[in-house]
Design a protein that fits this description.
Helix content of chain A: 25-40%
Shape of chain A: globular
Radius of gyration of chain A: 20 Å
Largest interface: A-B, 30 and 31 residues
Number of helices of chain A: 10
Strand order of the largest sheet of chain A: 1-2-12-3-13-16-14-15
Radius of gyration of chain B: 21 Å
Shape of chain B: globular
Structural class of chain A: alpha+beta
Oligomer: heterodimer
Order of helices and strands of chain A: HHEEEEEHEEHEHEEEHEHEEHEHEEH
Structural class of chain B: alpha+beta
């Protein structure tokens, strides 16, 4: 699984430019699905098995990023955020563009005072990207307006924990891929939706289940782990304590029925788990709850440190736990 | 071109009847089917040369404005915004409630305390005066819930036009022009004039289920933001540089093949064009993409300065180039073919 997580998280895939990730997932799933399709929004839908019960697992393929909106005479790029990217988080970092080239993020400021003021109220209007170009023409050729970029970051294993960019939500993709690989479906038709454009407003998942009409949906996404120095004190989630069963966040309240069954399956099979109440954020579960007549949906989260940074950290035991719990849940019908 | 007629018409979100009747009358004989749906969207079909796929081309009929929220004892009116309006642009402006003209008032400069002018007005400190001297008088003519629209005469000068509501009567006028000149769509094409875009992409939310299109093209009028006080690198678009093509805006990244097709089409026909260079603000494309099975959509816009005020300015060459680009996209039909 480590190799899969490395491959998925290092792939390039900001919202709306997720082709590379979809390709990796399809290659991984070859021989493990009965069929697949890609819809007009870039959702990759796979399926396996047959039966009365239709269950859909969702993980989003996109990651946060930036997009080039302007190029100046000297070849510096102006960018805007794609999803919840903080200008503070970008400062001094390297970015990787779709063409593989790299840029660095710099700060405007003509005086020390202005520099200090810009740092205090940092926004995308105060930062720029330096790609080393010698003038506008060279920059526009390689980085035309509309070119997307993501953090330039590698996968690392640190004391048994996994660190990389885009754990949000490639770790969810890894979970769904593994479930498809390992599941021997009985009496259940399983759908996997690798959904697009989640980070800019749950876009792909809003339409992915329209033609499927599953009986239930489980979204797999990351959640805040607050087990760091002065971590968010109202959050209970910790790395290594098992997958988190989401009760609610800012966007959705998990289906009580699904949640209770997940708890029951976890208890019966001695799968370590933790409960989650998140004070901010949301997952694709909301989109499915609002599709057609409403589809019962819940979220299983992987506790993650430093979400939306180039170094998101997860514990592989939590990931394995999520896969195990889902397999037992799907076999329990 | 009906930019003058359309822009001078009142049509604040939820109150688009006049605009809808005008458009309906102009295009009725030019299309194969026409209907108005429950929310008030005007939907007109122009049959294509080929079958199997369907295109929606959409522009919104509504404009931002105000609505009366209270009638005061002195006969003045309090109001709330309908759509995105900066209250600082309101004092001194002429407005219309039904057929009555009025002004939005604020304390005269003599009466303002030092420093007061530096502050920003909010909606609660502004009133509309229609000339009434009591609430009794006012109630005979107006009521809470009456729409208020800006009053601006359309003018042209040196190839540019000024007026209200170019967002998005510009798009409506472009679609009207295309139907009037005669158009031969490659595929069945629905010309959709939507309602309540400015209050949250509401009308467009029911379009997809009725038509089930393959893809959609939204024709908008967008912010230019090319004010001289702003750095050129931070402009959204620039007047005179041609239609703006969107790759990403709030809530939707445009399908890469649709975006590229629009750019390639403009290039191959020698139509000047530019990229929309800020991502703020959404369009009906975001709603089409997230409704039902999800309709991949593109956006082409006429750049305009000072949108969401009583006086926006657009370049008539940009208008004409937008018209040409949209017409070519409809007639060639490749925008539909890039979607499987």
């Amino acid at each position: 699984m480590k190799e899969l997580v490395k491959k998925l998280t290092e792939a390039f895939g900001p919202s709306g430019r997720e082709e590379e990730v979809r390709k990796i997932i399809l290659e991984e799933l070859e021989g493990h699905v009965d069929g697949y399709r890609e819809d007009g929004l870039g959702n990759l839908v796979v399926w396996k098995g047959s039966g009365e019960r239709k269950v859909l697992l969702d993980a989003h393929v996109d990651e946060i990023g930036v997009v080039v909106t302007s190029v100046d005479d000297r070849g510096f790029l102006m960018v805007e955020p794609v999803g919840g990217v903080s200008a503070y988080m970008l400062l001094g970092k390297r970015l990787r563009f779709q063409n593989g080239k790299v840029g660095i993020v710099g700060l405007e400021g003509e005086t020390t005072d202005e520099m200090r003021e810009n740092l205090k109220n940092l926004s995308f209007d105060k930062i720029f990207v330096d790609v080393g170009a010698n003038g506008r023409e060279e920059a526009e050729k390689n980085f035309p307006i509309g070119t997307f970029a993501v953090y330039d970051a590698r996968f690392e294993e640190m004391s048994g924990k996994f660190v990389s960019k885009a754990m949000d939500d490639r770790i969810g993709c890894a979970v769904v891929v593994e479930v498809f690989k390992r599941l021997k479906p009985r009496n259940v038709q399983l759908f996997g939706v690798f959904s697009s454009q989640e980070e800019i407003g749950l876009v792909g998942a809003s339409v992915a289940a329209y033609d499927i009409l599953p009986d239930e949906v489980i979204a797999i996404d990351v959640t805040d782990a607050s087990d760091t120095p002065k971590g968010y004190k109202r959050h209970a989630m910790k790395l290594g304590e098992g997958p988190a069963l989401k009760v609610k966040d800012r966007a959705s309240i998990s289906s009580r029925r699904i949640l209770e069954r997940l708890v029951e399956v976890a208890e019966r099979n001695k799968v370590k788990y933790q409960m989650e109440v998140l004070t901010f954020g949301g997952t694709n579960a909301l989109s499915y709850q609002k599709t057609r007549h409403g589809i019962p949906a819940a979220t299983i989260s992987i506790p993650t440190r430093y979400i939306h940074s180039p170094s998101e950290m997860v514990h592989p035991d939590d990931v394995e736990g999520a896969i195990e719990l889902l397999l037992k849940y799907l076999e329990a019908s | 071109m009906y930019l003058r007629e359309l822009s001078e018409m009142d049509g604040v979100s939820g109150n688009e009847e006049k605009v809808r009747s005008f458009i309906e009358e102009k295009i009725r004989e030019k299309v194969d089917e026409i209907s108005v749906d429950v929310l008030g969207n005007l939907i007109a079909l122009k049959k294509g040369r080929k079958g199997g796929k369907t295109l929606v081309v959409a522009a919104h009929m509504d404009e931002v404005g105000l609505i009366v929220s209270r009638i005061h004892e002195d006969g003045s009116l309090s109001f709330q915004p309908v759509g995105g309006i900066d209250p600082r642009i309101l004092p001194g402006k002429v407005v219309k409630v039904k057929d009555l003209h009025g002004v939005i008032g604020y304390k005269a400069i003599h009466l303002q305390k030092e420093g007061e002018r530096k502050g920003t007005q909010d909606f609660s400190s502004l009133r509309i005066y229609l000339g009434f001297s009591s609430d009794k008088e006012a109630r005979e003519k107006v009521s809470v819930g009456d729409y208020v629209s800006f009053v601006s005469e359309y003018r042209e000068n040196n190839g540019r036009a000024v007026g209200k509501a170019f967002d998005d009567r510009g798009g409506c006028s472009v679609l009207l022009d295309i139907l009037e000149r005669g158009v031969s769509p490659a595929y069945d094409t629905y010309f959709v004039f939507t309602v309540q875009e400015e209050t949250g992409l509401r009308g467009s939310a029911v379009v997809v289920e009725q038509i089930r299109p393959t893809c959609a093209l939204v024709v908008e009028t967008t912010t230019s933001g090319d004010n001289p006080e702003m750095d050129r690198e931070r402009w959204a678009t620039h007047l005179g540089d041609g239609p703006a093509i969107t790759f990403y805006h709030r809530g939707y990244v445009v399908h890469p093949r649709i975006f590229q097709l629009i750019v390639d089409t403009a290039k191959s026909h020698g139509i000047p064009h530019q990229m929309k260079r800020r991502s703020a603000g959404g369009t009906d494309a975001g709603r089409f993409a997230t409704t039902a099975y999800g309709v991949p959509s593109g956006v082409v816009s006429i750049p305009a300065r000072y949108i969401h005020t009583p006086n926006s300015i657009l370049d008539l060459r940009d208008y004409e180039h937008t018209r040409r680009l949209v017409q070519v996209l409809i007639e060639e039909g490749k925008i539909v073919e890039v979607i499987e």
